[in-house]
Batch of 2 targets.
Target 1
Amino acid sequence: MKMKVTCIPGDGIGPEIVAEARKVLDKVCSEFGHEIEYKDVLMGGCSIDATGVPLTDEAIEDCKSADAVLMGSIGGNTSTSPWYKLEPSLRPEAGLLKLRKSLNLFANLRPAYLYPELKDACPLKESTSEKGFDMLIMRELTGGLYFGKRSTEERNGEMVAVDTLEYKESEIRRIAIKAFDVAMKRRKSVISVDKANVLDSSRLWRKVVEEVKKDYPEVSLEHMLVDNCAMQLVKDPSQFDVVLTENMFGDILSDEASMITGSIGMLPSASLNDTKFGLYEPSHGSAPDIAGQDIANPIATVLSAAMMLRYTFDLDKEADSIEEAVRKVLEEGYRTTDLVLKGQEKDFTLVGCSRMGDLLAERIINCKN
Ligand code: IPM
Ligand code: MG
């Protein structure tokens, strides 16, 4: 197959982790006889430095004209970087939000799975982590608080800031359908997370999710308040299969879910619209503090590349080969530093970002060959 992939390496560790994902993809191509035509575009701080804006119209076009986008991460240190002295619409994150909106990427899939090999790195009690967990957070990505009207103004001698949280029925319905569809391919359980005891938007969310559920008699549905969900994630993550939630709750809960997998460096994501097109990126940020040191964990980006092969290109065997390579590398005891607790270093072979990429690429095999 010939694939057209636009890469957004971005800022911080972004370029390093995308380079490793490409290494792995190149090996997949040579093993399985595919070809990827890449194009690199700027987004985030690097785009601000080069063009004055976090995302140019040409960059959006370069993403639209590809089959898929593979991204690293964007942004810098929000306290020290000059990018955060700019007005909000010119900051790095505004580029990512604009791209998601321009491409209508309303469905964000964030799987959180505890590899048995990483049980020791899981910060939860052993009695909890030994049960393992395998959940998928379905986060609404183009509505809610991050896209509502906002303002900061002076009123009666003091500053007042307003953010609005708005959801249309149609926006809730389409993400709920995605959640139930994916639940049908998993353990057939959806937990929908909201704050219906306080928010109108959550009450509408619940109503629409109930309506969508009627078309999926085989799937069980439970509603959970977001504060309780935050607690349940650390109490018993094994209870979750598909977690359906709105934009900001999904942003927060997915960071929490990633941490209990052992490291935020393990969590991939896919952002999809109603076509086969997708944007694939790790759920973690640009980690400017460790950028350029070859110590970042590239696994979340490599697994995002696997999601790209699966969801955009329907290349399941190829995606499996990447996931299998990750399992093998962990089983063989290789770890980036984020995956090792203090004091346990001698039990593992510590490797850098680039070496981890090499190890993963070496383990990509086409069983038919
Ligand atoms: C994420 C990030 C982004 C978000 C930021 C960088 C705008 O935290 O993808 O989770 O909040 O969506
Ligand atoms: Mg986030």
Target 2
Amino acid sequence: MAPVSPLDLSQSRVLVLTGAGVSAESGLATFRDSNGLWEQHRVEDVATPAGFANDPELVWRFYSRRREQAKTVEPNAGHRAIAALEARLGDRFLLVTQNVDGLHQRAGSERVIEIHGSLFRTKCWACDLEPFHDTASYMAERLPICDRCEEAGRKALLRPDIVWFGEMLDPNHLHAIDSFLRRGHGTPLVFLAVGTSGAVWPAAGLVHQARGLGASTILVNAEAAENTAHFHRFLEGRSAEILPVLLGADGPASG
Ligand code: OAD
């Protein structure tokens, strides 16, 4: 690991963006490390509306397995360091995660925007039923049906509340991120991206948005990301090792 010293964030506002790398040390696989395949499936088959329309059983089996995996792992020191920073900064902190595994919340993070949805929520494929908490496994033929649609005389499947490729992010989420970035009133702004390949937009573009508003930008990643060149600093290494030092409560950041 590159030598790391604690940041002094005691007077700053901090926007943290996380990706699959943060959960890697808890034992969850990242996305872009197996020739574009997720557990032997093509992304198009399991993470697009067309994939679901074509084979909902396959898609539900895939996400049911991911639910099971996420339930069996624990948050790591990287998740905990981020939660501890929020505890110190309060409203001057916002976490935007592309992860759908819920590990940040289990580590104690509260100000979290899950821009790609959650493995543990389910919604209707057809109607605007409010997404609901769901930890069930749908591994067999028994696919979940929307009760509300059924009452209205329609038959519609439920689906995972995940933002698939080709789908829009929630505009309320984008608005909340934008207003956090803009409401500085002179407080120094820091943008910290962790464990993300910088390959998926619009998350990959947050560094530009933050820089445009004068933020110091830092990337912590196991290897160079696609957008590394746009950060002021790149700390190469594992998030569970770097974050406890970088955000360390024992360094000048405590305040
Ligand atoms: P990726 O799998 O694309 O990238 C993970 C990054 O984390 C890679 O650059 C790894 O080098 C790095 N990494 C791995 N282990 C690490 C560790 N221990 N510490 C630090 N970095 C580590 O994952 P994301 O960038 O999150 O979207 O992928 C973005 C989105 O693409 C996902 O949210 C998902 C996928 O399509 C949806 O599901 C909608």
